[in-house]
Each structure stands twice: as C-alpha cells, then as structure tokens.
Specification:
This protein has 102 residues and is an all-alpha fold. The chain is built from five helices and no strands. Helix content is 56%, strand content 0%.
Length: 102
C-alpha cells in the first residue's frame, strides 16, 4: 500500500459543490459547529443497548442537521448541556482540544 497522497482532482465533484453551498449560503461557522455538536451528541449519547451504527464516512452526514439548526435554533442552555455531557464522556479528547468545562 502506498503512503503517498492522491493527487487532487482537476474538477470538483458534485458532492464538493454541494458542501461549498454552505459558504455561498453564508452559513456561519458557529452554526456549523453547533450542528456538528448536535449530530455527534445524538450518536454518542445513545442508550448503551442501542444497535451499533456505522461510523460517519462523509461530511454530508451533517448537512441535514445544519439545515435543522438553521430552521430551528437551539437554546444555548441545551447546547451547554450537550457540551458538558460530551466532555464528561470523553475527557481525554476534550483536554486534547483545549476545551474547558464551565
């Protein structure tokens, strides 16, 4: 197996253009971060006896959540709760990215 990086494609794919639409729609980076938090929390905070789900393979997984957060903004207290719960489940990861619990 080669460790060399693949050359970049000469043209963007349809999927890349779809993701670029976030930029053209002027979706704020903070809103994208909120959608990432919500989507990962939904996966991480599932019941222990829930069926196993496949890993996220592409950023397209998050697009419906971004649209959901755009159309129905979440309460800041709820987001703080998600951050706290995620931090309590993954303290090593949280420490590595420099997040601090309030």
């Amino acid at each position: 197996m080669s460790t060399a990086a693949r050359p970049a494609p000469r043209e963007s794919s349809r999927a890349d253009r779809h993701l670029a639409a976030l930029y053209h729609r002027q979706v704020p980076a903070g809103l994208v971060a909120t959608a990432l938090l919500v989507a990962t929390a939904r996966r991480t905070l599932r019941p222990a006896d829930a069926l196993e789900i496949r890993p996220i393979a592409t950023l397209h997984y998050f697009l419906p959540v971004i649209d959901e957060v755009l159309s129905d903004p979440l309460d800041p207290g709820y987001l703080d709760c998600l951050r706290y719960r995620r931090a309590s489940l993954t303290p090593d990861f949280v420490a590595a990215i420099g997040h601090q619990l309030s």
